[in-house]
Amino acid sequence: MYRFVAVLIPVTNLFRRENHHFPLQARHFLTRVLTCLVFLSLFPGNLWGASNTPLEARLVSATLKVFSDFPISPGSAQPFRMTVVRNEYAPFQVAVRAKEPLEEVAVMMECPVSETAIISHSANRTFLVEAVPIEKPSIPPKPEGADLGFPRFWPDPLPPFETFQLEDAARTRAVWFDLFIPADTRPGLYKGNIVVSAKRIAPVRLPFQLEVHDITIPTAPSLRTAFGNASLRACLEKRQAAPRGSTQLNKLVEEYYWFLVDHRLSPYHIPVDIFTDEAHKFLDDPRVTSFVVPISGGIGTKGEIWDDAKMKSLSDRLERTGWINKGFLYLIDEPSPEAIPDVIRIGERIHAINPRLKYLMTTHSRHLLSDKRVVEQAEIDIWAPILSIMSAPAERRILLKEQERGKELWWYTCVAPKWPGINYFIDEAANGPRIHPWMNHLYGNDGILYWATDNWSQVGCNPWERTETYPTGNGDGSLLYPSRDGFNRPVASIRLKMLREGLEDQELLRLLGMRLKEVASRIGGRAADYRPRNRLFEHAFALVTEEGRSQGGAEEAQYLKYLTRDHHDIEKQRDLVIHEIEDATNQPLLVFDTVPCDKGYTSSSSATVTGYAETGSLITVNGAEAPLTQNRFEVAVAIAPGANTITVNARGQAGRTKTIKRTINRR
Prior knowledge:
Helices cover 28% and strands 25% of the residues. By secondary structure, it is of the alpha/beta class.
């Protein structure tokens, strides 16, 4: 500790009032440095101690589930590296085990520092990864009975970190770091260390690097979400966390609400009456993209929806506040064929009061879309099909036509479909929830709905001990945990964190689309025909396995059945998106499409490349010149069986060059 005291005394002199010549920006930088030094001075043990320790530790991706038998291989000579942007989280994990029982195991971070800046540890939150029991798999194994090696405990809850014990030398534990990259972080390479220590042993230091790019994602989500939060209050009352109707109960419900918003999700219900002034705090927040309009009704003729005075009062409130742009009426869920007349009648009723009110409809079977009366008469504003319906070619065509007519197109998953790689089950690969927002660009969906985040009523309000929160679905409808010490705060799941990661990735995809649109506009001429969404589709398509991508035509393919479960794939694709955002506006300007698309398959002996470049550019495709006409070029390229690389090179008038590659496969 004494070395830190010696540093602090002279440096603090720089902060005296008479030192006006010392730059304010530098003072802020040193303030952060001193914060980290004081923090480290309180750390037990010698940070630069010997490596002879029974501790074994390793930094690993957050998009990976660390089980108790997770191997800790010998440390790499290279630091753990992450590519990040500003105003996002950069989570990662520390896997720890020991050769002998250890007490008071602690894991802390040395602040990441670049040559000119620092990311304070105050931007970090630390959690202990806990495991919960799974009695049977959510997705039945094939062949039946092949689940003999199925893990019985799965990592998922993330309670706040506390020191822990390693009693079993054969057991690996994980600690989760949620490192936030502030919006004002300077781009550059930051270096830091994770320090793992325990009672009476020398600590282990694990180096990591953050490559911060000059890209900032928005705080307000661009993708609409609606995630259920209706069950919480009943469990809080049942477990006597707070008396019914008490201020304490309302504060707890509010804390759970903001917890979801902080993870880029919009809850169904605000915790106060919509007619109160307090409602503004929730619905004026730009991070809240949607909410369920509080009105009762549904199948039959009962409910407040049939009360003219209440409906008009609610409509007026929504119009005056502007909340009509966020709210939607969700009155019938997954209607049966017999309920179709009610679906139509309610749609007519809603829009008779106010055509600007939004009517949402979920559907999990084909009968609703196959009935022409629904599409022509029900006046549905937001379609929310289950994933399997969106994947069905005939139904997808109907939904996309509805979208062309100005309807919103959301989708959802739940206990079904049982497709690996895109569900929210506890007993699934970590990237399942993360990949879902990427897939919005596969079909052009506008939003994601999920029926519940707090569905604990079927497990005695204790999802820590019983995880089958809905029959055949472990964690279905349950992305949160109550704290173990009396429900007094929400606890995140790994799945909730992965959804947040996917929604941050979605912002990068959106930024790329905006950047490509800007490039096409600057090129001019026939570049107005360019569609950036085609490139966003290709980024989503890259997360489909080769088995899925090699299917027949895109119209018939059900790509969602074949999504990667390898965390490396999604991290690699994200890095590519970041690179393309930064490179898009560099000279010379160039955009293009291929048929088939990047990483696609064809039986043809040629592929078509159609692109746009700024005036005066020299374009070559696989070495052959492609003439520009009104800033447009199009060539056919011969392809051989197997994988083929398409290389498009542009040389601008100033002599600068740009090279972009795509891969096309011939069967």
